[in-house]
Amino acid sequence: MRENKELVRMENIVKRFPGVVANDHVNFELKRGEIHALLGENGAGKTTLMNILYGLYNLDEGRIIVKGKDITHHSPKDSIKLGIGMVHQNLKLIPSHTVTENIILGLDRPKFFLNLKEAERRVKELAEKYGWKVDPKAKIWQLSIGERQQVEILKLLYRNADILIMDEPTSVLTPQETKQLFSSLRKMAKEGRGIIYITHKLDEVFAVCDRVTVMRRGRVVATKPVSGTTKEELAKLMVGRPVLFRIEKREKPPGEIILELRNVRALNDKGLLALKGISLNVRRHEILGIAGVAGNGQRELAEVITGLRKVISGKVIIDGRDVTNKSPRKILEEGVAFIPEERIGTGVVPNLTVAENLILRTYRYKPFSNRIFLNFRSIFKHVDELIKRFDIVTPDRNLKAKFLSGGNIQRVVIARELTGMPNQGLPKLIVAVHPTRGLDVGATEYVRNALIKCRNEGSAILLISEDLEEIMSMSDRIAVIYEGKIMGVLPQTQAKVEDIGLMMGGVPLEEIKR
Amino acid sequence: MMLKITRRGSISRSFSALITSIFLLLAFLAGSALFLYAGVNPVEAYYAVVQSFVNPLLLAESITRGIPIMLVSLGLAIAFRMNFWNIGGEGQLYMGMFAATGVVLWNLETHVIPDLLLLPVMFLASFVVAGLWGVIAAVLRAKLEINEVLTTIMLNYIAILFVDYLVYGPWKDPHGYGFPLTKPFPPSALLPSIPGTHVNMGLAIGIIAAFLVHVLLSRSKIGFEIRVTGDSFSAARYAGISYFKIATTVMMISAGLAGLAGLTIVSGIIGRLRPRASPGYGYTGIIVAWISGLNPWLIIPVSILFGGLLVAGDTLQSAMRLPFAITQVFQALILIFVIMSEFLKKYRIQIGGVKI
Q1: Which of A130, A291, B13, B54 lies at a 20 to 30 A Cα distance from A225?
Q2: Do A327 and B242 lie within an 8 Å CB cutoff?
Q3: Would residue B337 count as lying in a domain?
Q4: For residue A304, with 0-12 CB atoms within 10 Å meaning exposed, 13-18 middle and 19 or more buried, which class applies?
Q5: CA nearest to A308, candidates B227, B234, B95, B42
Q6: Which residues have a Cβ under 8 Å from the Cβ of B196 and sit 6 or more positions away?
Q7: CA B212/CA B297 separation, integer angstroms
């Protein structure tokens, strides 16, 4: 009977990459009917383990048994046949095709003639079973992100997958969509499927999972029933040391307005209107958090303020000066720091050294250069100071930045941006986009505290994040963006998660109050 | 049969050198097949190649032919460092020859420029005219986002045919028995030899240029901007670097150096302007820039090596009727093998059970 309940057993899995052991004798097991959390920080080896299970990577040592069969050396094709399915973080659907077309894409059958009607009927049936309202004939681009994710899951169910791997599925969802996803997952588990839930969010483990396996640095540190553990214990297992969940924030009366947006409209890269009349302001000693589901204009908002994107109408005013459509350099010189979304490739230049990256935005000013040449003596003096002050772990200031860990790369960005311009000091305004995304708990703590410190000392901060917990814990006021419009602005003390969630789904604040 | 490609970690210098030498050897082997096909004994062909560097007279010739390659290649290396794909070295070089020759012919009529100043003026003119020719592609790219590969290639044809027009038409020497040649340059317009050698002063210009390019890239503000832009376009915008400014500056220098290469041809090799004065130095420069890994110091010896291949090609052409095209195919072979070796330095290939 026990044999029958077991879906997956992975024994002593070892996977090495040049320079690292990504999986070090990992054991993992999945039973029918359970939702099994795979918890760990970025780089802990969760995704590697799942890619091995799915057959994308060859393992170096160990054994994989699925439904009693040894499948140690298998391909993704074998996995699909065995009923293993994976929903990736970045959804992989063709926008111009319909839901059904996407679902049957890549299936062996039908061999030649498509019976689309029959397929549509089955898709509809499956969707209804889980209470989803997905129209099988709708084109993917017409659907919300939450619905697209449902399509991805339907794709697996259509193939009768009973081992589902969900890779951080909530990072793109509103709180309401998350709730719906959780109830669907529970239903699927009840029907006898096994679900592996990859996450680094502790709350989700307790909200939806039955068991949890914690990974740290390529090793499994514990497997426990969720009912027999606590948030604090899991955090400690995951990080390797006790973690404080509080951020020190001093009360500070907000000062004068530093950033003001007046009815700003701007296009996205596809030429569609991405910002539809945004008006906002941020004051000294204040963090304004922008909450919202990914892709609702956050990127464009940050770019418009920092001069990387032109506005088609409206005004951007920084410290009383109109900087609308000024060059990035002019805005930089106004004392605007920017922590961009793409850390590698924008925030740091991977093939430049740590030292060069630390002066990426200040190289052209005294004392780092004269009219023609860089002054390496004063650059190195400054850089060594920053490396010490911001605890950047690097063997050498001349190491190429691409060899740093994710947390240290963000420290380089933070060090450069929060130090401000030479002879100007503290930045007037800091635009921070997803400043802690993908960072481990320690680095996250560090970045958040560094930002709070700047706020206390007098910077105005615009914080754009998809992590609602981050927005709630750091902001003085919270604005919610939806399809390029601000749904409402609330002081942090009056903000309820449910209301923010509704606004993230497109309900304006006035309607909620009514 | 399964083909698997995986990333290698960092590799040692000696391993890297080993791979490069193995692949160069393979290139020579492949070249042997090519020579056999063309009806030339490969042993004799390679003997001619070796002679180009051993025989002092031929060595001087190899260096002389290497000079324009060197200058073009140094210019291209700057543009390639910022990911600006300047394929227009050849055309820019022709514009340099045009400008230098223009100054000489004009001075033959007017005698405005004193003899001592003639070369400096030609130097300046070829740099500026070729530079501006290159800037066209930079402006089109920065303002209208037109791919620079296309514009630089098309500008090549315009420049080459424009020079043809001049030499067949208005600039044709009336005493040249109808041949498409300009009047010969007076001695004051010819690059002097480095004392005691048969190599012209162009070599000194090349070495100074390599030094300046090295300093520019590693020490200057512009060099920093070039490296940032080359590695990440979006990081450059983030850093406040204006693409228009950096692209036009880079192309002015890059094409300007190609213009100087043109000067070393008309003033150093031919002594006048004629059609097809360059046998594709501008294209060879691309190969040399890549083989040298865009390193200005390496460009000097590699250019001379390729100059030697041209000399060997000439020898074989006259002695054994080897078509010139074969020399060009051989150059391309070397490039392809070098690119393959670069790939192998980054990735490990596994075919079936065999690991490379």
Answers
A1: A130
A2: yes
A3: no
A4: buried
A5: B234
A6: none
A7: 11
Q: B222: nearest CA in chain A?
A: A372
Q: With pLDDT > 70 as the criterion, what percentage of chain B qualifies? A: 97
User: Strand, helix or coil at B349?
Assistant: strand
Assess if residue B109 is contained within a domain.
yes
In a domain, B36, yes or no: no
Asked if the structure places residue B45 within a domain, the reply is no
Alpha-carbon torsion angle B116, B121, B123, B127, nearest 10 = 170
Identify which has the larger pLDDT, B317 or A314.
Answer: A314
What order do you get walking across the sheet with A194-199 strand by strand?
A84-87, A163-167, A194-199, A35-39, A211-216, A219-225
- Among A372, A400, A413, most B C-beta atoms within 10 A, so best to mutate, is A372
Q: What is the mean predicted confidence (pLDDT) over B293-321?
A: 89
What are the tokens at A337?
């720091």
- Partners of A337 on chain B (C-beta within 8 Å) are none
- For A464, how many CA atoms within 13 A lie in the half-sphere containing its CB? 23
Sign, CA torsion B167/B173/B174/B175: negative
Flag if B238 and A373 touch (Cβ within 8 Å).
Answer: no
Using CA coordinates, name the residue in chain A closest to B234: A346
| DSSP code string of A392-451 | ---S-TTSBGGGS-HHHHHHHHHHHHHH-STTT-S-SEEEEESTTTT--HHHHHHHHHHH
Q: Report the topology of domain A252-335+464-514.
A: Rossmann fold (3.40.50)
Encode pLDDT of A252-288 as tens digits: 788 899 999 999 999 988 888 999 999 999 999 999 9
**Percentage of residues in chain A with pLDDT exceeding 90?**
49
Residue bearing tokens 């505290």 = A449
Q: How far is A378 from chain B (nearest CA, A)?
A: 13
Contact A347 B228 (CB under 8 A): no
For residue A332, which residues of chain B lie inside 8 Å, CB to CB? 240
pLDDT band at A3 (very low <50, low <70, confident <90, very high): very low
**Could you give the ipTM of this predicted complex?**
0.84
Kindly determine whether residue A351 and residue B231, on different chains, have CB atoms separated by under 8 Å. Answer: yes
Query: Cβ contacts (< 8 Å) between A340 and chain B: which residues?
Result: 238
Token pair of B103 as six digits: 């100054």
Residue B355's pLDDT is what? 67
Q: What's the pLDDT score for residue B1?
A: 52
Give domain A2-239's CATH architecture. Answer: 3-Layer(aba) Sandwich (3.40)
Quick check: A134 and A150 in contact, CB under 8 A? yes
Ranges for all domains in chain A classified under CATH 3.40.50.300: 2-239, 252-335+464-514
Please report which confidence band the pLDDT of residue A170 belongs to, taking 50, 70 and 90 as the band edges: confident
By residue range, what is the domain housing residue B189?
67-303
Q: CA B262 to CA B94: how far, in whole Å?
A: 6
Burial class (CB in 10 A: 0-12, 13-18, 19+), A185: buried
**Does B225 have pLDDT greater than 60?**
yes
Task: Give how many domains chain B has, as a whole number.
Answer: 1
Mean per-residue pLDDT over chain A, rounded: 88
Considering only CA atoms, which of A431, A439, A434, A495 is closest in space to residue A465? A434
> Which of chain B's residues have a Cβ under 8 Å away from the Cβ of A349?
227-228, 231-232, 235
Region A49-76: mean pLDDT is 88
* Overall average pLDDT of the A164-169 stretch: 90
Nearest residue on chain B to A346, judged by CA atoms? Answer: B235
Task: Give the pLDDT band of residue B343 (cuts 50, 70, 90).
Answer: confident
Tell me if A372 and B220 make a contact (CB, 8 A cut-off): yes
Chain B residues interacting with chain A (CB cutoff of 8 angstroms): 7-9, 219-222, 224, 227-228, 231-232, 234-235, 237-242
Q: How far apart are CA B71 and CA B256, in angstroms?
A: 9
Subunit contact A361:B220, Cβ cutoff 8 A:
no
- Three-state SS at A358: helix
